[in-house]
C-alpha cells in the first residue's frame, strides 16, 4: 500500500534535482515517502541569498527579493521529520513556514518551505546588501560545502552572524 503524502514541501536550494543534497530526496522517494510534483515559484517575492559555505537561505520577508524558483514535492509525515532533521530545525538553522507557490502548470498550492531562522534571516539579508537571487543555480552550488566537509569550530550560521 502506498504511503500517504499529505504535506507539500517547496525546495529551492540544495535539495532540488541535480543539486548537492538531492540524494536525500532520492532516498525518500525510494522509501515511498516523496513524490516530485512540479517545478514552481513563490507567489510572492522573498529574499533568497547564499550564506557562509554557500548555503542557500530563503528569508521570511515577503515583498522583498524575487519570486523564487524551486520544486514542489508531496511528502509523508516521516519525510517531514527527516527533512526537519536535515535542515536543523531544532537547532534554529531553518524554520518550516507556509508559502504559496505557483506550479509551472499554473496551479497555486500551499506548501511549506525551509526559511532561514528569524534569529538571523534579516541580518543575513542586510549583510548581502539586500540583493537576492531568483533561483539557486549551478554557480551558487559550486560554492556549497557539504556538512561533512565543513571545517570545525565556527560552522554554524548562528556562530558566524550572531556574536
TrEMBL record:
One GO MF term attached to the UniProt entry: acyltransferase activity
SUPFAM superfamilies on file: Gamma-glutamyl cyclotransferase-like
Domain Gamma-glutamylcyclotransferase AIG2-like: 9-118
Active-site residues, record numbering mapped to chain: 87
Entries under InterPro entries matching the protein: AIG2-like_dom, GGACT, GGCT-like, GGCT-like_sf
Protein's name in the database: Gamma-glutamylcyclotransferase family protein
Keyword Transferase (UniProt): yes
Family: Belongs to the gamma-glutamylcyclotransferase family.
GO cellular component terms attached to this protein's record: cytosol
CDD domains, per the entry: GGCT_like
Keyword Acyltransferase: yes
Species this protein is from: Pisum sativum (Garden pea)
Function: Putative gamma-glutamylcyclotransferase.
Keywords, sorted A to Z: Acyltransferase, Transferase
Amino acid at each position: 500500500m502506498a504511503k500517504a503524502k499529505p504535506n507539500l514541501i517547496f525546495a529551492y536550494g540544495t535539495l532540488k534535482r541535480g543539486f548537492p543534497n538531492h540524494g536525500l530526496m532520492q532516498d525518500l522517494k525510494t522509501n515511498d515517502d516523496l513524490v516530485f510534483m512540479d517545478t514552481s515559484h513563490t507567489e510572492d517575492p522573498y529574499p533568497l541569498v547564499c550564506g557562509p559555505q554557500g548555503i542557500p537561505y530563503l528569508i521570511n520577508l515577503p515583498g522583498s527579493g524575487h519570486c523564487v524558483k524551486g520544486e514542489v514535492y508531496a511528502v509523508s509525515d516521516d519525510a517531514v521529520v527527516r527533512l526537519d532533521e536535515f535542515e536543523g530545525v531544532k537547532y534554529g538553522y531553518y524554520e518550516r513556514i507556509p508559502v504559496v507557490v505557483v506550479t509551472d502548470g499554473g496551479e497555486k498550492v500551499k506548501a511549506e518551505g525551509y526559511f532561514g531562522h528569524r534569529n538571523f534571516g534579516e541580518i543575513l539579508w542586510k549583510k548581502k546588501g539586500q540583493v537576492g537571487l531568483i533561483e539557486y543555480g549551478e554557480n551558487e552550488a559550486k560554492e556549497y560545502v557539504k556538512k561533512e566537509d565543513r571545517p570545525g569550530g565556527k560552522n554554524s550560521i548562528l556562530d558566524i552572524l550572531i556574536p
